[in-house]
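Session log. Operator J.P. requested a structure for one protein chain; no other inputs attached. Running the standard single-chain path with token output.
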Amino acid sequence: MKAANQAVLERTKKTRSVTRSIVTKQTNKLESEINNSVDKTIVYELYMQLISKFEELVKLDKEIEGLIDIDSLEDEILTREEYRDKFIIWKTRAQRYIESVSSIAIRNSAETQLQNVTLPLNSSVSSVSTNQPRLPKLTLESFSGKDIGSFPSFWARFKSAVHENSSLNDVDKFSYLKSVVTSDAELAIRGLTLTPENYAKAVKILEDRFGRQELIVDYHMNNLLNLTPVRKSFDVIALRNLYDQLEVNIRGLESLGISPDSYNCLLFPIIMKAIPPDLALEYNRKHEKKAIPNH
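Structure written below.
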């Protein structure tokens, strides 16, 4: 490489490094505002700033790829794709957040800016058209992986709205999936780039990690075994909460085909241990009276 080209390359890389740092900071700010703010205006402003900076980043990537040697091209593409994936994820999350807060029409202005963002792809990868139809608006619940018991309902809704939606390709489906998983669930599929093959891998990882029936059964049974006892019979709020916890976990087991009759011998002592002693005593007295035959 000529010295002049090397100097241009180094200068462009330095500029890109600064731009990447700004994109990362803006992404972190956007995440913080989405998690903590109810002001859609702030989220919208950060969202538009992120789009603008990502456009700059794409141009710098194209310049650098035209200057580097072939041996370095693969690493450049892999790094570039990581930033591209993060951008798509947070673009989708920001859109969903703003749409959930109000019906503000941001798509037209955002898409206008995005028309100039050409994602640089090497010839071995299918090109992405910036004029392709934008993803339809879908209201989806998120899944963190902390509450394994909620996976069946999460997946049932996602499956109906996205997974079995014939109008979406697998890359679109993967984009939706990445936008609704957080915490442990997000960590489980982190590192998988947005490709059709990786969507299938991501689904299998989530199902194996959070969707196996034995795991969900254990989750509900542990919840029942660790119910917080209520000690005062006049504590109506605590009693109602106890009842709700029982119902949630019993229904969760029933949805897996496990009837209360199959674990009744375990459930009865759990309930008796969790309710106030005076209520347990009253129940036992009434039960004993019914058991005594009349003469």
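Operator note: Residues 215-289 form one domain.
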